[in-house]
Amino acid sequence: MREIRFLATDRAALFWLGIAVLVAGVSVSLGLREIATQRALLNELIEVDRAEREVAMANYRNWGDTAYYTFHLTYDSPSDFAFAAHGQRDTSPWKHRIRALALEGQIYETDADNPDFALVGRFDFGFAANMLAPLLLILLLHDLRSAERAAGRYELLSAMAVSRGSPWLARASLRVGALMLCLIVPLAAGGLLAGTGVSDVALASLVVVLHIAFWWGVCAGIDRFGWSSPVNLTTLVGAWLALAVVVPAAIEISVKAAVPLPDGGEIMLAQREAVNDAWDLPKSATMEPFVQRHPQWADYTEVSQPFEWKWYYAFQQVGDQTVEPLSLAYREGRMERDRLAGMLAWLSPPALAERALQAIAGTSMAASLAYEKRVRDFHTVLRAYYYPRLFRDEAFSDASLGQRPEFHAAGASWCLCTPTSHPQQRSWRTSPSLPLEGARGGVEKRCSLPFLGGGPPARCAEALVRAKTRATGCRWAKAYPSLKWHQSPCGAIPRRLSRAPPRSLLRLPGPSLHVRA
Amino acid sequence: MAELPVSPAIPIALSAQALRVVRSGQEVLKDVSFRIAQGEVHALLGGNGAGKSTTLLTFLGFLAPASGSVQVRGRDVSEDIRAARQAIAYLPEAAALYGHLNAYENLRYFLSLARMDTQRPALDAALDRVALQAEAREMRMQTYSKGMRQKVAIAMAILREAPILLLDEPTSGLDPAAIDDFNRLVRELAEAGRTILLVTHDVYGACHVADRIDLLHKGELVGTFDRPPGMDRIDTEAVHAAFATHAAA
Ligand SMILES: Nc1ncnc2c1ncn2[C@@H]1O[C@H](COP(=O)(O)OP(=O)(O)OP(=O)(O)O)[C@@H](O)[C@H]1O
Ligand SMILES: [Mg+2]
């Protein structure tokens, strides 16, 4: 209490704490905005994607054209904690438009819409907490004793203090605690707005606490030497520079040197060249390597016409096959780099804390590679769907088309629910083109269970979510009215809502939307 | 050292035995011994750099003896620094309180470190005792003159209510009237049973208030002057003479 009152009169400390709140608050709100933008963009793209596929479905009535003209949006939805640490979402693509052509080029094509160059957006909570907060802590703690010594109060304060460590420990812990709060409160507020799970926020707070505690240890260690304030400050800022800037840069350089990588553009070019060359090669040059990979189509390799779709898709696949070693090396190299960087990050607590936050936020390199793998898996499934139809020249039918796989995003914790396309119909279901996203890491299943009935919006949404959790086997799900809501069967819901939580909208008591199965 | 004439009936509040202190590789106290009985006023006199402040800091445990020992109320300081500090009210040489706080706030903050919750009337009584003008008390201390700051520091030492007071140049910056006041205060405190070790450059004042004066020169005790029984002060001329001899040496 005494020290709280004293801290309240310490203008410099209050100033730095104010800066901490400001920096954390701004970073959180920028992060929330960035994620909201990404979500809104995804939601629009999901609609566009569905509409486009419907157009393609109407316009093309054979398998070759349909496979050629039908794009599938693949994407990695931001997690509800991604606002705090953008991580790889700033530099690696998180959405693609995929079709049944050669894949490598589609994956590594730099999508102008992916924010590859949005370096200004790099100011996230992770940066505030891991890079700036240690500096603020240094400013708060570096002269705790030395300033008193310089002012001639040190002996008097120490001689007066009855309890052990007082007032130094009290002053330091108060400042450290206040700084932690200045970071965690905005983070928790952001989490509340984003609907982040309590455990994620708690885990991230723990990371912040441990990281700040490390820097407290550094400050306390330097303090033991009894140097003057300027010497303390210089030494501590030097330590910060070393641990937060120099070591991470050295890690990056050495990891890059230790694990050389082909680059994605190279893979894309090599694959495109292979595909282009195929036009001029004898058909057998394509069909032989293709059949090696897919022996089940060996009986169907006869190409009599100058152009046949099966040959076209075969050389697309062969294009991928030619760059396969390069592509594999690229993926494994990135994984290896990430593994090495993860080990070396123990040399730099700020880097370690950043990695921890990214892991919680699902924005790590591992998450990015996992998304890439989902895209590859989806593409494989898509090919497996088209090949029998192309090679056996199956008849085109809507029923057969209805079996075409859809991409489902995993990794986010929202269950997206939209009303069916007929607003008058008293039934809701997840639209077939919309994913139902289970709990992160959980099994991803699509819910197509109709919800019938009316009632107040709250009941409606709750029942909907319950039905979904049951249908999907997900541990939990949330209704996320992010899309255009039409007249709901249970009453009017605003047409457009860009972000969670639906709680306020639906006037539901808190947990009823987080229905646990 | 001659045997110190202290009655065994009165407990010893402070004692130094063959005290040697080294600071930055320099021996700044060499074989210093003295004892101060409870209720005694003891003055340490000496030129600049003689080792007076160093002696006080050693009693507070801020400096450790290189050899020899210091005791507070019979207990070795190195054994229990906390107990020593708790028994002592300390007035530092350059008593700087917080400039952004007023006199009351400063007193309350520092006293609260000693777990004392002193109320306004008691604070005012102490500030009255050192004659700090009432209108200044609510002002930030950065607006105070040197003497005003010193008065607040003295008030703090009184309010601390410790049995022993270590006062490092308490009269520096005080006007003559305030010095007279202070000397009276010291006698009153001693009569109330407090033990006072006073570091000063004011030979005249020391002779008036002290029961004994120790003369420190370059880290060594070079002279001891006791108040003769029945006299109200120590012989100023003798102290001056001794001081001058050593200053010339
Ligand atoms: N912080 C310090 N570090 C190292 N040596 C010091 C320090 N302070 C004082 N000394 C040395 O200790 C010796 C005694 O200093 P001390 O402060 O005890 O003198 P003093 O008798 O109080 O003098 P003054 O009358 O000027 O206050 C001096 O020689 C000084 O050089
Ligand atoms: Mg001194």
Keywords:
heterodimer, A: 517 residues, mainly alpha, two-stranded antiparallel sheet, two-stranded parallel sheet, 4% strand, elongated, disordered C terminus, B: 249 residues, alpha/beta, Rossmann fold, 6-stranded mixed beta sheet, 4-stranded antiparallel beta sheet, 34% helix, globular, binds adenosine-5'-triphosphate, binds magnesium ion
Architecture overview:
The complex is a heterodimer of chains A (517) and B (249). Chain A has 517 residues and is mainly α. Chain A has helices at residues 2-7, 11-59, 63-69, 103-108, 125-141, 146-150, 154-160, 168-194, 198-223, 229-258, 264-278, 283-293, 309-322, 324-344, 349-361, 365-391, 398-401, 457-472, 502-506, and strands at residues 72-75, 95-98, 415-416, 427-428, 451-452, 476-477, 479-480, 515-516. The longest helix of chain A has 49 residues, at 11-59. In chain A, 42% of the residues are buried. Chain B contains eight helices and ten strands. In chain B, β4 and β5 form a beta hairpin. The radius of gyration of chain B is 18 Å and the shape is globular. The A-B interface holds A 2, 5-6, 9, 11, 151-153, 155-164, 166-167 and B 57, 60, 62, 82, 85-86, 88, 90, 92-98, 100-101, 105, 109-115, 160. The structure holds adenosine-5'-triphosphate and magnesium ion.
| Estimated share of beta-strand residues of chain B | 25-35%
Would you list the SSEs of chain A in sequence order as H and E? HHHEEHHHHHHHHHHHHHHEEEHEEHE
CATH-scheme architecture of the domain at 12-95 and 163-248 in chain B: 3-Layer(aba) Sandwich
Q: What's the total helix number of chain B? A: 8
SSE blueprint:
The complex is a heterodimer of chains A (517) and B (249).
Chain A: H1 2-7, H2 11-59, H3 63-69, E1 72-75, E2 95-98, H4 103-108, H5 125-141, H6 146-150, H7 154-160, H8 168-194, H9 198-223, H10 229-258, H11 264-278, H12 283-293, H13 309-322, H14 324-344, H15 349-361, H16 365-391, H17 398-401, E3 415-416, E4 427-428, E5 451-452, H18 457-472, E6 476-477, E7 479-480, H19 502-506, E8 515-516
Parallel strand pairs in A: 3-7
Antiparallel strand pairs in A: 1-2, 4-5, 6-8
Chain B: E1 12-23, E2 26-37, E3 41-46, H1 52-59, E4 67-72, E5 75-76, H2 81-86, E6 88-91, H3 103-113, H4 120-129, H5 146-159, E7 164-168, H6 176-191, E8 195-200, H7 203-209, E9 212-217, E10 220-226, H8 236-248
Parallel strand pairs in B: 3-8, 3-9, 6-7, 7-8
Antiparallel strand pairs in B: 1-2, 1-4, 4-5, 9-10
Bound molecules: adenosine-5'-triphosphate and magnesium ion.
Magnesium ion (MG) binds at residues 52-53, 93, 168 of chain B.
